[in-house]
Structures are given as structure tokens and as C-alpha cells.
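Journal club prep — side note

Before the paper discussion, L.F. wants everyone to see what a predicted structure for a comparable chain looks like in C-alpha cell form. Sequence:
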Amino acid sequence: MISILLVHDNSDLIESTRASLEKSGEVRVDTVPTTKQALEILKNRTYDVIVSYYHLPEVNGIEFFPEMNGVELLKYLKSHGNPTPFILYTRMKDTLVLEDVNNATEVKFSRGEDQKKPVTELRDLIYQVVMRKKMERDQALRTELLDSILTLSPLWICQIRGGVIDWANRTMTAGLGHPEGGLVGKNASAFFASREAFDRASRELSLDVDQEGWGHATTQLKRCDGTLVHCSLMVHALDPKDPSRGQVLVCEDITEKVRLTETVRESDLRVRELLLHASSLIIKLDPDGTITFFNTFAQVFFGYSETEIMGKKIIGTLIPHRKGEGHQLTGFVSDMGSNGDGYAIRITEMLLRDGQPVWVAWTNKALRDEDGHISEIVCIGHDITDHEHRDRSRISTALWKDRVIADSDVTDDVFETVFNICLEIAKEGREGKKVGTAFVIGDTENVLSKSRQLILNPFAGHRIEDRMVTNHDIRENIKELAQLDGAFVIRGDGLIEAAARYITVDTSAVGIAKGLGTRHSSVAGITLVTKAIGIVVSQSGGKISIFRNGRMLQEIG
């Protein structure tokens, strides 16, 4: 709805004009016969347009406020800051004139023309005035909004013309330590760390241009106090066809980013130094098993220099190839994906440069990229070879057996004896054939109640000394009987209660890694419902798996 204040002394004309204007339903007209009344109304109300007759009647001298004509009313309103668009009615001799004062537009009518035409033209003129005012208001709002965005932006923004700063936002001015407006009129080169830095940035901005025409560069700008700020620069011509209009320069303060990057780099260097000189074996691998890091301790231990080992595959260099065993990298880092913390603990037979075998307990950690894919594998190892024994293929259990036998009735020497028998079976087999078997140690009464004999118990009726697993003389008998199906059941003190024992427990609640068979699941199941320790030798791969409480504690091989 367009609101109009119509000031006219002719009551008949004013009423007919109002009726004609309001006929469309888009206009509301208030009428007054004098400028004095108009001023009173305008004290409390605003209008989209004021329409006033040029010649208004004179008033007598008794009036407190002298009457004005239309032009005087216009001047008065403008002098008091009223921006309302103004249209004048003027009658000069035989000519009627409608004048849009704000836009210097005139519409003239001669005597004898259609009397309706002036009203129609007035209505059109009013629409034009209102539309133009709205456009001006919208443009002002857009300009104000843009000015606010540019002024309050966290980015440093300025306009440069002829190398001189024409305008700079508040953020840039404050960021460089200058008072408001303090950058305007200054040469842009003065804010660079040096003339060489300015020239270098100028070259970068002209060479590194993206598809939208933005030039890019990084440099240092100089604050008012002389300190330097690391900045990322972007520049774009305001009008590529008219270089005289200058350029807009956008700067981002990246001082903190540079500092953090440098801190991370220094931290990485310190970490690398620590890893390099740590007293543990530390190796880094690519997902395909290529060695990318080999610390000093590992170099001394394995007998390889850094230049000799870097870029080599761990399988076939440090870990021997074993035909038919599927001994791949996935075995070395097994279960990393299934563990919530991303770790895998594994005891692995390794080869020194001179071919001597050693056993290393590895803690392997998978590092993943943003997509969740393994990008790197960090391996931290400790030598657990039993160097005191003449057979260097033996593994020292000193560092890890305590967590296996804890809260059980199994003694140290019994566990170590059974473990080494398993290690010999895994390496030697029997008569040139691989052998798979299982041992269940401790909590014997419960184990026997949850299992049954597959065949006649081969240990039944023998003397106690001939049934003790620690008796070295019966070791070959144990290896021979390992070829039978079923498991050995051994008391915590070492007495062999049975061989070829079939475990009858429910294994549905057991969670073990994929690829493990019924032997592994049944042994895991018996350790879940008893306090026994389970050890399984895999026939297919010669790996040794140790179970407690229904889960695998250790895998060797």
C-alpha cells in the first residue's frame, strides 16, 4: 500500500483526485488544505510521497505560523532532513505542470486536454517515485550490508589502485597495528617485510592464478611496531577490462598456523630422534610390508645398516619365507583390525643377517588415513630368544608368561615345558609331516568333566613319574601321541591325565579370529568355562596360539 499526503486548497479537486488515486486499491491518500496542517501531520507520520499545489492561499497576519506555498514547504522539509519524495502541482497560464522534484521530471498539460489525463499521469508519476525510492533504499541496504561484511570480516581486505591503498577494512588496519584509516593513502609495498619480499609476492600473485582469476601467494607483512605477520594473499582485479579501477587484496593471518606447523615439525623430529635411539626394536612398514624406518637398535640387533634395509620387504628379509604356510604380512600384523585400540601382539621368528634365528615379541600398531585405510604400521619389538639355551630356537617366556598363568594352578616350569614341546612340534612335526595338536593345562577336574575320551587313554595305568610332562624321557612319546585327534589334559603340577580327549563344551560364545578351526574354538571354549590354559599348535601354519578365559592371549609363529 502506497501512502500519499495530498496538500491542496481546492476541496473539490482534492476529493476527486483522492477518489481517482484510491480507485486501484493500492493507494491510500490523506488530504489537507494547508501546509501548516501538513507540517502538523508530518510530525507524527511518514508518507511514501507528498503531493502539494504550488500556489496555496494566503492567510491573515493573525496566524501564529505563516502559511507556505508548495515550494517553501519542500524547502522546509529538506532543511529539516525529511527525505520523502515530493511532487508539485503547478498551473502556469494555460498549462498544468506535474513536477517530480527529486528526479527533475516534468509532465505538462494544455487547456482543453482530457481532464482525467493529469490524474492518470500523477498516479504513474507516484508509482515511479515510490519504485525509485524503494530501489534506492534496497541499494543502500545492500551497500550497508556489504560494507559491514567487509569491515567486520576476519580476513584482511583492502583496495589497491596504482600501488596505493584506497580503502582497508578495520580488521586489516588493526591487525597491522594502525589507527582507523591509517593505511589509506600509503604505498602497499611499505607493509611488506622488505622490497625483495614485495617483489617475490608480486611474482607469485601473477604466476599462481586460479580459474576464477585470483592470484595466490604467501609472504610476511610488517606491523606498525616492526613485527612480522605470516600471511596468505589473494588478489583480484576489480575490473579486468579496466586496470585503472585497481585490485582487491585479501589477506589471511596464518602466523599461528605457521607456528603450529613448525611446532609439529620440531616435535616429529624429536620423536624420530627418540625412536631412532630407543633401546627397543622399532620398525615402520608400508601396508605392503616395505620397511620405511629402521632404528639404530634394530640395525645393531639384526646386523643391517639403514641404507641396506630401507625399501626392502620385511617378508623374506627379516621374516623367513615358509612355503605352504601362508606366512604373509597379514599374519605378522594379525588382529589389528579386530582390536579396538588397533594393536596386535605377536611373537615371531626372525632372521639375523647371518641367518641365525631369533624370536621377537612385537607390538604392532596400525595407523589409518582419513578414510580408515591402513597407511602405516609401527612395530615395536623385544628379543625373547632363550640365549642361555644351546638351542636358539627356544623362546624365553620370562616377559609374558606371568599374564598367561596368573590366577591358575599351573606352575612356571610346567607351562614353560609344555610351551617348548609345542614349539618343537610346530617346527619339526613328525616324520616330515606337519602336526596339529592341543594341550589343556590346569583345573583338571573341571576339564575332565567337560570332555570325553575318543580312544583308550594311552596314559592310564602308567607310573606317576612316567606321566610327568617335565620328565624329558617321555617327550618323544608326547610328540608321537600328538598325531592323535583330541587334546592332552595336564594337571597344574605337570601330571598328564589323558591324551586324545574330546572337548564337549558349547563354543557359540567364543569369539576368535577368522580362519581358526574347530581345534582352536574348542580349546578357547574350555578356557572360557574353566580356569585352564589352552595351547594349540596349528597343523596348517605351525603357529602356536595360547588361550585364557575364552580369548587368545598370544600367537607365536
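L.F.'s comment for the group: The CA atoms of residues 82 and 390 lie 108 Å apart. Keep this in mind when we get to the figures.
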